[in-house]
Recover the amino acids of this structure.
């Protein structure tokens, strides 16, 4: 008999290995295997395999109590609690729909109805139930619930509560021009002639689009204007150059005030724009904290051409607060800064304190003069050892900048603060 | 008339189904280890096994009315095996995370490495077996269940179980020839 070919015998050998063979049969198998090389080898292999199975051990399982509780909790949820929460959420949603969404929709419908019915020949101010024609040069102070300004072409300006708008004469006899002095304005503009809205430091204009422009800060203080487009494209200017803001984009521009103040530019993308004009200053980086690059050139007193200062500032409540400054070489070219006094006063202050001291960047010439006078009174502080060391370091690492700054410091007390050249501000509302 | 053993699996199941949490915890503690062990060997993945163990007992709780007498453990294992098969079908094409070997604590580092390697060879050889043979071997060799118990769990004849175990061992012996 050939044992190698006997499947039944192998199965019996397996029983023998597993201990399930009948005892009498097991003895017969052992005797046979002792005398049969094939079966002996097969038996040995199966015994090795059976024993090898025992080498696969498992780690201790997780504690039963924790798992048991988890299973029990899963099988017994708390339906009342969840039902209560779901009911509460549904009630809140219904309340919101009834008291917030529906009135808003009704107001919107009413607004659209009025727009469709009224096509005034002159801009109309609608505040509450009252409507009055808007004369050129008139000021609109929106009440707490806001006001609408409807234009002859069907465009409408939604003024937020507390906003102030000044109507201006139309340019070229067609375009409506206004100045947003403070607050927020959303414009829904019909296709046609551009609407131009002046803001401190620049203007925004568009054709057939919807945008929001917001002025932060008052007209006599440093202000930032934020522009956001909801649809279409707008063009905006900061008095130095013009750029476009596409749909969904947001820019903040015209950082510092009005005539006679330092003018700034802000880009939302962080890219440095190409500028030309009397003042070259703009902000990069984040919306609330950024850098202002200020250039002063050959026309500045005793300052060589091509020097730049970077002022990192923080904008809070529409006011810019200088935090620190750094003088360095900037891009070549550029022209004089019209408000160098303001900048230098801040620069000097920051340098004098030798730390990140916040100091208001005022656009008020008197305030700047006061700062300059204060600086002049504290010349002895400039001579303090700490400041001297700092100046020595600067003189060593950046002799050119240090020399320029020293010249500025020396000239400051006698420096006369000049307002911007008239041509630089011709587009600004007065 | 004989009274039911208050600590029997079936009685604990009845009490748990009636909302008695301690009875369920006792039942869970009694069988969780063995069910978990079978599932870990079948799935080769500790987290899957733990999840399936919980799912098994969850189904026990939710489907206690489906238990129609007989041996509780057979019903329990049947649920667990079905869950493991379902998971296997779902993850057929997915390489499961291997459970690391657990060498004997007394062995030295080199011995531990050798043991871990052998354990891995065993696991791989078992993995190559047809499903019914693998299940029969695991239940028989590791859980110590009799052919009759396995037959009840698998709902097949005792001879079929015996044949599966025999064939499985023969295949393993060929596969593990190289093992010292």
């Amino acid at each position: 008999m050939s044992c190698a070919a006997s499947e039944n015998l192998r199965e019996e050998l397996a029983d023998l290995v597993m201990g399930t063979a009948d005892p009498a049969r097991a003895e017969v198998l052992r005797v046979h295997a002792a005398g049969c090389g094939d079966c002996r080898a097969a038996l040995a292999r199966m015994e090795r395999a059976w024993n090898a199975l025992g080498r696969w051990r498992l780690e201790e399982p997780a504690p039963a109590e924790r798992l048991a509780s988890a299973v029990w909790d899963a099988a017994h949820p708390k339906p009342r609690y969840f039902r209560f929460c779901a009911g509460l959420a549904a009630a809140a949603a219904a309340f919101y729909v009834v008291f917030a969404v529906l009135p808003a929709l009704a107001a919107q419908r009413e607004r659209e109805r009025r727009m469709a019915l009224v096509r005034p020949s002159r801009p109309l101010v609608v505040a509450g139930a009252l409507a009055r024609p808007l004369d050129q040069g008139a000021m609109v102070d929106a009440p707490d619930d806001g006001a609408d300004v409807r234009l002859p072409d069907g465009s409408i300006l939604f003024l937020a509560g507390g906003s102030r708008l000044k109507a201006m004469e139309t340019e070229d006899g067609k375009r409506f021009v206004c100045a947003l002095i403070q607050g927020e304005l959303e414009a829904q503009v019909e296709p046609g002639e551009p609407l131009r809205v002046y803001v401190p430091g620049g203007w925004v204009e568009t054709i057939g689009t919807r945008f929001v422009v917001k002025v932060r800060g008052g007209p006599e203080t440093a202000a930032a204007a934020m522009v956001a487009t909801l649809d279409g494209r707008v063009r905006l200017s900061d008095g130095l150059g013009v750029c476009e803001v596409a749909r969904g984009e947001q820019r903040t521009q015209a950082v510092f005030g009005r005539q006679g103040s330092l003018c700034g530019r802000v880009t939302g993308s962080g890219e440095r724009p190409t500028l030309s004009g009397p003042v070259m200053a703009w902000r990069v980086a984040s919306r609330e904290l950024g850098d202002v690059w200020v250039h002063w050139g050959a026309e500045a007193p005793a300052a060589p051409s091509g020097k730049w200062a970077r002022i990192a500032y923080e904008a809070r409540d529409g006011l810019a607060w200088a935090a620190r400054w750094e003088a360095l070489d900037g891009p070549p070219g550029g022209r004089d800064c019209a408000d160098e006094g303001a900048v230098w006063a801040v620069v000097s202050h920051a340098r004098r304190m030798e730390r990140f001291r916040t100091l208001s960047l005022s656009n008020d010439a008197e305030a700047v003069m006061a700062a300059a006078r204060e600086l002049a009174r504290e010349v002895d502080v400039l001579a303090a050892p700490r400041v001297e060391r700092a100046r020595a370091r600067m003189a060593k690492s950046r002799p050119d900048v240090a020399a320029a700054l020293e010249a500025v410091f020396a000239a400051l007390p006698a420096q006369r603060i000049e307002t911007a050249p008239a041509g630089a501000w011709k587009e600004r509302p007065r | 008339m004989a009274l039911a053993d208050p600590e029997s699996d079936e009685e604990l199941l009845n009490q748990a189904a009636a909302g008695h949490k301690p009875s369920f915890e006792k039942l869970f503690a009694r069988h969780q280890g063995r069910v978990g062990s079978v599932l870990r060997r079948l799935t080769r993945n500790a987290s899957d096994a733990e999840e399936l163990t919980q799912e098994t007992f969850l189904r026990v709780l939710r489907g206690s009315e489906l238990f129609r007498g007989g041996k509780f453990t057979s019903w329990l294992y049947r649920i667990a095996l079905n869950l493991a098969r379902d998971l296997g079908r779902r993850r057929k094409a997915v390489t499961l995370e291997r459970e690391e070997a657990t060498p004997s604590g007394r062995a030295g580092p080199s011995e531990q490495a050798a043991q871990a390697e052998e354990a891995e060879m065993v696991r791989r050889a078992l993995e190559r077996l047809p499903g019914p043979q693998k299940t029969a071997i695991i239940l028989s060799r590791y859980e110590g269940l009799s052919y009759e118990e396995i037959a009840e769990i698998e709902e097949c004849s005792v001879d079929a179980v015996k044949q599966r175990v025999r064939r499985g061992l023969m295949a393993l012996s060929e596969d593990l020839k190289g093992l010292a």
User: Anything to note?
Assistant: The helical segments of chain B are 9-17, 21-43, 46-62, 72-90, 109-128, 131-142, 147-154, 158-175. Chain B has eight helices and no strands.
